[in-house]
Automatic annotation (TrEMBL):
<comment type="function">
    <text>Could be a nuclease involved in processing of the 5'-end of pre-16S rRNA.</text>
</comment>
<keyword id="KW-0690">Ribosome biogenesis</keyword>
<dbReference type="InterPro" id="IPR005227">
    <property type="entry name" value="YqgF"/>
</dbReference>
<keyword id="KW-0378">Hydrolase</keyword>
<keyword id="KW-0540">Nuclease</keyword>
<dbReference type="InterPro" id="IPR012337">
    <property type="entry name" value="RNaseH-like_sf"/>
</dbReference>
<keyword id="KW-0963">Cytoplasm</keyword>
<dbReference type="GO" id="GO:0000967">
    <property type="term" value="P:rRNA 5'-end processing"/>
</dbReference>
<protein>
    <recommendedName>
        <fullName>Putative pre-16S rRNA nuclease</fullName>
        <ecNumber>3.1.-.-</ecNumber>
    </recommendedName>
</protein>
<comment type="similarity">
    <text>Belongs to the YqgF HJR family.</text>
</comment>
<dbReference type="GO" id="GO:0004518">
    <property type="term" value="F:nuclease activity"/>
</dbReference>
<dbReference type="InterPro" id="IPR006641">
    <property type="entry name" value="YqgF/RNaseH-like_dom"/>
</dbReference>
<feature type="domain" description="YqgF/RNase H-like">
    <location>
        <begin position="14"/>
        <end position="116"/>
    </location>
</feature>
<dbReference type="Pfam" id="PF03652">
    <property type="entry name" value="RuvX"/>
</dbReference>
<dbReference type="GO" id="GO:0005829">
    <property type="term" value="C:cytosol"/>
</dbReference>
<dbReference type="GO" id="GO:0016788">
    <property type="term" value="F:hydrolase activity, acting on ester bonds"/>
</dbReference>
<dbReference type="InterPro" id="IPR037027">
    <property type="entry name" value="YqgF/RNaseH-like_dom_sf"/>
</dbReference>
Amino acid sequence: MDRPTALTDLPRGAVLLGLDPGTKTIGVAVGDPGWQIASPLETIKRTKFTKDAERLETLIAERRAGGIVMGLPVNMDGSEGPRAQSVRQLARNLVQLRGWTLPIVFWDERLSTSAVERFLVDEADMTRKRRGEVVDKMAAAYILQGALDALRRSD
């Protein structure tokens, strides 16, 4: 990725996928073409880069996605540590090794997982096991919803 991509670079009216890349999983969410609502889609258990990328490419094709909003785990002080560098490397690999051309936007995901966990405990009264199954895709939806809200505000 040679240059940073801004929210304004995303194609208007395109379906967007939200990604919450972690070390063991990638949470995936999908937004509607009107950029109103982000919905959890699935959690990909990470294996090898090639297999992970193939699954993402299948989802992009199935949903006819025109852009990606990727959660960037920024530290509370705004700096980027090893986890953020790992996410940026994933994006670079998708572009350089897999030839992705659709825009990838990074979105500050600070506290997204803890906000989702809090909701699942307090509001949904979900068991720990069930939370573990849904938290990553819910966090991806939380990340994508933040970006969709910002896109609508910029209109």
